[in-house]
Amino acid sequence: MIGSPSDASRCVLIVDDNPIYRRGLRCMLRRAPGITHVEECNSAADVESLVWRLQPSVVLLDRRLLHTDSLHLLVRIRAASPAARIFLLSSEDDPDMRREAFAAGADGYITKDIPDDVLLSLVAG
Amino acid sequence: MFLRRLFHFTAVLLLVWGAIILLRTSQHIGRTYGGFIVIHDLSMEPPFYVGYFPWRTIRSSPFFLQAFDHLLSIHGAPPERYPAIYAAARPGDPIEYRVERNGKTLTIVEPAHIFSADIFFIIFGMHYLLLLIVLLTGYVLSRPPCPPYRRVLSLFSLLPAIAMIHSLWAMDSFDGPPTTSSYWFGLLSAPVPGLGGAMVLHSLLLYLWPRSTLLRRAWVAALLYVPPLVLGALIRVVIELGPQGRVAFVALLQTIFIYGTLCLGATPLLALYRYPLLRRSQPTVVQKGARAMLIALGVLLVALVVFWWVPFMLSGGPLIPYEILIAMGITYPLGLIYAIFHSNLLSQAERKAQEAEALRRTREQMLHHIADRIHDRVLPELQGARMLIEALPLANSEAMQQERLMAVTTLQGLVREMRAILDTTKPINWSQHSLTEVFAWLVQRMQALHPHVPVHLAVDHGKVDPSPQVKEAIYHVALAALNNALTHAQAHTIWLRLRSERNGIWLEVEDDGVGFDLASIDSFASDRRHMGLESMRFHAAEVGGDLTIESHLGKGTLVRLHVFNEFESGTTYSI
Description:
By secondary structure, chain A is an alpha/beta fold. In chain A, about 40% of the residues lie in helices and about 20% in strands. Chain A contains five helices and five strands. In chain A, helix 2 (about 45-55) packs parallel to helix 3 (about 70-80). Chain A is globular and about 30 Å long. In chain B, strand 10 and strand 11 (about 555-565) form a beta hairpin. Chain B has a five-stranded mixed beta sheet with strand order 7-8-9-11-10, with helices on one face. Chain B has a four-stranded antiparallel beta sheet with strand order 3-2-5-4. A two-stranded antiparallel ribbon of chain B has the order 1-6. Chain B is of the alpha+beta class. Chain B is elongated and about 140 Å long. Classes of the chains: A alpha/beta, B alpha+beta.
């Protein structure tokens, strides 16, 4: 789960507690051009240390992590890696949640049923 | 608490007062009660009406005693027997007498009605019984837990009780000095039938629209109570006209009765209309409402005959206005009691509303639970599984490639289906979002799921503030209609229109799809595939809306919903 710091500038970190979705997303991102490294994390406890270590360019953070306030976690990730682009992942397409995400400092709000090409273009920046 | 104490205090006071009057009346059983006499002054043309006089006045007036003495002397009765003749005067004894006084000729042209105290004791007894029933009804209505409209209604029941006590008081003390309360008795009693009906209707309105503004409440109260009060005041005026005003008196009396009966009849009609859960179809409302009105009218008529016509016919002689007012004071509470008990429709409405609210909460909790499960597990895992399959190394076999593609397509379809379910079950905080905002979001979602079918949204802003319940109902009807159009209609274009007018909110969902045969769909109403139609009808009925669905094979479908405005919030803003 711990990746190499040398890949940091082209690294994507997925933070999601659903293993199948996390695994599927990782597989999809790995095949994408321009992304050299994809890391997974399933709990909030490991996120900060991972971010410090990897300094990922993109963080895909689940909006509804178990026992965790994702927005609070987002602020902590932002503090640990100011340059990272942080996207909130959610199954819900809710305008209120979008507003909250942007207010907390997210760079984007992505629904989990978004088409792959749209997701990749967002991650590529 | 204050209203309840006020009711209890007043009720006890009235009961004690009524009991004292009843006891006093019982002392006169077997004796002549009194009489009324009409005098015309023939020195003036046309003849001038002087007034009605109760027996106590006649007996205390030397002038009238002189007149009666003269009458008796004409009939040959010796003077020493006059007191005995007065005491033995029978009901309906005709008395006609002309006398010269101060240069004027006074003629007694109508019989003096002599009443026995017995019949008045019976009437007083029934009166007191009705008083007990009315106050008991008010007490039952005021028992906690009771909503505000019941507290008001319990206080309303005091008015006929006060009128009854007042009428007892006015009829009492015939051996004492003439009471001056008969004038106020007339004023107080005349509007009671109309006021009673208006009270019941008003209490229902307070219940149906508990959050109406003070100004609107005052306006509605004025509209309801002014007509009977004006008619009652007019009755008092025509009473002063005496026999000349009898036609006008009867017409006014009938008008007040009809007004009260219409109000009583409107009560169940309104309850049925406002709470569609009490009915199953529109004709039932009319039938039940008409039946309620007929029953109210029948009860009033029976009460009139039993408590008014029979006793006074037995007492002999035609009726005079005070007698009719007395009878009204006795009769009307019956109608009011009927109306109050008949208004158990209100209780039914309350119960149905509570059941509907409990059902709604349960449904909402279930939907939350389902939505959470879909959000947390189903949708991400379907999406994850699809991405995993797509990430698998390409197979050499064409057949395997086809199967892989089929699996991916199926999973993509399932994800879309889950998204549609989430949109359908999504709870919306209607106090924070307008219909316009939610409809824009809904159209955006639908377009994302079905990009090949354009959905045109047209919202006409108005100054209406629908309640959250109305907003939710409109939203669900629109959602079901859109889902039907996008899923089954094979439509090329869909139009979603929402406009607000003075008489309510109109929703239209129209498509140019294949249409359907509404009759054949209705014949399979229990089929779960037609839950969209059932859902639309259910949500429309929940807010008393009118839903029409027009569809013809090959000519598209038009779903139209009209929800009347509610008299609710004082603030207004757009939909």
